Write the structure tokens for this entry.
Amino acid sequence: MKKDLIQFIDNPYKTESANALLALFTKEARENTRAIHKHFNVAPTPLVKLSALAKDLGVAAFYVKDESRRGTLNAFKLLGGSHAVTQILCKMTGLSPDDYFSGTPETKAKIAALGELTFAAASDGNHGRSVAYAAQFVGQKAIIYMPKGTAEDRIKNIEALGAKVKVTEGNYDDCARMITLDSEKYGWVMVPDTASEGDPQIARWVMQGYLTMASEIIEQIDAPPTHVFLQAGVGSMASTMLTALKLEYAGTLPKFYIMEPHQADCFFRSGQKGEAVSVEGDLDSIMAGLSCGVPSPDAWSLIKDYADGFFSIDDILSANGMRILAGPLGGDAKVVSGESGAVGTGLVDYILKQDESTKTALGLDENSRILVISTEGDTDRKNYRDVVWYGRYSQY
């Protein structure tokens, strides 16, 4: 058996102090965000309760938010790009979101006065696809920079939305730096998913876009979770979900754990040091959407203050999670979960079945109600089949 499948540390910097960024993720903010998404005709995704899996793991409940069902993009990122692009256009035109999409002659005139815009983003796949989708939806252009080694499926999915794709010779963080410079040079409107690049206000709009997912979970779940496992790339989704659920369940606060691949474990290392730490190199993980080496400053601020601990995880556990969700027990529903989406399931399965000390440290037992988020479907179809059908990245 391969050793060192996980590394875990508690968060010694957790505090009960009020972080100023909490104001971005209130119930009112959730409602405003959801109102914008209604204009994109995006239906809620299911929260799947896997009762047979919970019984097998020895816990009270196991919930999976299935983002493979998020519109036509099959990933949660649709929410961030669409929200941010709408907010940018509303700021440019002085219109409210409802007015922007009203179709009145006055509105059309203001939109026409903007001329042709190009929205730009760095992406491992899903964020770029979201920005391309939003740009196409509002009749504008998009350009996406992607790191070397990006799966062909992810490139084609973005190009199918009318966007131009440039695959660079660097990693994700190199892409982010390059597109920041090129956006300034060519007058593109950059839509970053991290406050470390571009306009931090736009990055916050991306983060707020994920509040719709939190609102859906709060409505769908039958009892508050006790443990929430959140995967982090730059940390935008993880910090948003952590904060929104923390505010909602203040009286019965869950424990929140951050997960990353070994190759790009910048939050894990930041948790060790107590300040933001970057990871360099190829960041080459099966979890492509999490292969980011620089924490978003806003995300790190929230995660440092409120997360309970950090995990650095081997790719094998993500592959295990994909197989577990693809081959459900009993009457459980099948969940098509991609490499970055299944890591929570794989981690929890490993802890509960093979790591008694970590199980005890986290307080996992027969009363635990676990929530994970499957952030994407089979956005790289070839690799999904290689893992699920042919056993790629096997533990044994």
Summary: The domain at 78-207 is CATH 3.40.50.1100 (Rossmann fold). Residues 195 and 371 are 27 Å apart (CA to CA). The chain has a mean pLDDT of 94. The first strand starts at residue 6 and ends at 10.
